[in-house]
Design brief:
By secondary structure, the protein is of the alpha/beta class. It has one domain: Rossmann fold. The protein is globular, with a radius of gyration of 13 Å. It starts with a strand and ends in an 8-residue tail after the last helix.
Amino acid sequence: MKILGLYFTCTGNTKYVADITKEQFELLGHEFDLFSIELEKNSPTKIKNIIRNYDMIGLFHPIYGSGIPKIFKKYLDELTKLVDDLNIDGFTITTVALFSGDGAIVSKKYFDET
């Protein structure tokens, strides 16, 4: 299976978790590419051109105010507008210091319900 991981991190904690997740999937024999949404080379416009090469997408982000950070939400909103007919499995992993609220469930809207 080929997996695309998109992450946003501010302190480095989410990147650390994304790296560990990547390592675990690779130990199981999967290919896992990890991209920071903060780099211009990974903009939604550029990711839309490669996303169809993947079987699964993983979203990694910290919890801000019981939800998705605005920068990550904006990125996902733009990406889903560019690739509105994508049918792909996905998962979300969030990092949190104290209280997660609805943080992980908020990302569900970016995946088709099946």
